[in-house]
Amino acid sequence: MSKKVENIGNTFTSAENKKKQQQRMRRKVVRRRVTLFGGILVAIIIILSIMLVTQMKSNDEATVERQHKEQRYQKQQDEELALKEELNNLNNKDYIEKVARDDYYLSNDGEVIFKLPGDKSKQQEKGSKQDK
């Protein structure tokens, strides 16, 4: 029971066939446009994702570098305070006199300095501290 179907060549069927063909063409065009715009959208999302990841990485690196610099700055601040204190001590006459007496065994007029056996260990400790 197979029959061959033939188109009738009247205006109605040809108009319907034209409409169906135009609809197919419109669907193709719409599908192409959706695919094109979808591809562009996906490309934009990928590019923005890559930029986001690289920006986050550079922010992390900058944060680590900033922390290192803050630590170094704090060490320099502490060193500056120690140097200012030492400068103040070196400008203090009593401190200079104490250092001269302890380290160099200098004395005032009329004073006699006695060197005790325990003084050698103190000298060796001072010498080893100065070597470091």
Give a quick summary of the entry.
Residues 1-24 are annotated as: Disordered. By secondary structure, the chain is mostly helical.
Topology summary:
Elements: H1 11-90, H2 93-104, H3 119-131
Task: List the main descriptive attributes of the protein structure presented here.
3 helices; mainly alpha; about 130 residues
Describe this structure in words.
This protein has 3 helices and no strands. The longest helix is centred in the middle third of the chain and has 80 residues, at 11-90. By secondary structure, the chain is mainly α.
Assign the structural class, choosing from mainly alpha, mainly beta, alpha/beta, alpha+beta, or little secondary structure. Answer: mainly alpha
Calculate the mean pLDDT score and round it.
Answer: 85
Number of strands: 0
Largest sheet: none
**What is Rg?**
47 Å
Protein name: Cell division protein DIVIC
InterPro entries: DivIC (IPR039076), FtsL/DivIC (IPR007060)
Keywords: Cell cycle, Cell division, Coiled coil, Membrane, Transmembrane, Transmembrane helix
